[in-house]
Specification:
The chain is of the alpha+beta class and 403 residues long. It has 9 helices and 22 strands.
Amino acid sequence: MKWPSISFSELFRVKHGYAFKGQYFESDGPFVLLTPGNFCEEGGYRDQGDKQKFYTGDVPEAFILDQGDVLVAMTEQSHGLLGSSVWIPTSNRLLHNQRLGRIVDLDETRLNKRFLYYLFNTRDVRHQIAASASGTKVRHTAPDRIGQVVVNLPPPKVQCRIADVLSAYDDLMENNRRRMALLEEAARQLYREWFVRLRFPGREHTRVTDGVPEGWERVPAPEAIGINPRTPLSDELEHWWVQMADLPTDSMVIQNAVKREGRGGSKFRNRDTLFARITPCLENGKTGFVNFMAEGEVGRGSTEFIVLRSKRLTPEFVYCLARTYDFRENAIKSMVGSSGRQRVQESCFQEFLVLVPSRRVLTLFAESVEPLFQQIKVLHLQNQKLRAARDLLPRLMSGEVAV
């Protein structure tokens, strides 16, 4: 079925955001400043956690967002961001920032707002918005250029049905993401409790000398962790490949690994930790836990990863350690190179001391956190299947597949 063509300018207007003043940005406050970091590349809103910006200054009421508002990213501050959309999940707390377009004056008799949110995330609309962008260092578009986008528009009843189908998938995936975040936080909190605060099982009967419990050791990191360990892999074989863009900033889940042929790069195995070595990826928190390969497989990744492999600890312990402030600060302080391309020096790990717990405590920790890591893996696999099913989006939107 071929639906009639219409331009966005006939259906709604895109409104520029407000230039909020930097002197009022704080680590906490009454308002959350919406930024491109809150946009997912595939569309959707994400909480930035401790990287979230808050605003404490006076706020024009017209720039306080309402639940159900739709916004579109008008800048390519990270790969794939331009044209992605957000459906505002809460009201009276999020602020409409500059470089983000808010959909206003929507003709709801012809266009369903939830359908529009999904429409922005179709390949055709993204390509048109990308083609309208200008700029050298950071590409950007403008409200009037977004208004020139042309789409094929189904009848309102069909729009509602499509939006309902896709919303159901999104709700399931978001629920899984929340569960994964809670599981990971539980593992990382247990690590902090036992190995940072030293409130481990049996501590009441364990003597501690200079911060080292009896039966534990404090050793340079390379004695406990393999730093870029040698891992054989034939250049002739197809293998898993992980790019820097696939590494998460706030979770362990590696998103979009693919199988392909290729040479060079960092080599890793299941249960290794991938740790970004280049600025600003390291400062942004890019770190992942490898858990998606078959037993015995070896993968390759960007040369800008440092592969961390347990020698005297456990893989889960190494990942939790890599997420700690002290471990990351030690690496960041070692960076050398030209501005914007600074890299971690591997020698810095020789200077970082790691507590190696007793075998009993390590075993208890593994028994506690391995099931959490396994549940995260299962939930991520579920989301991959849900995402594959939801990738009917382009064909639903075009009418090629009936609702």
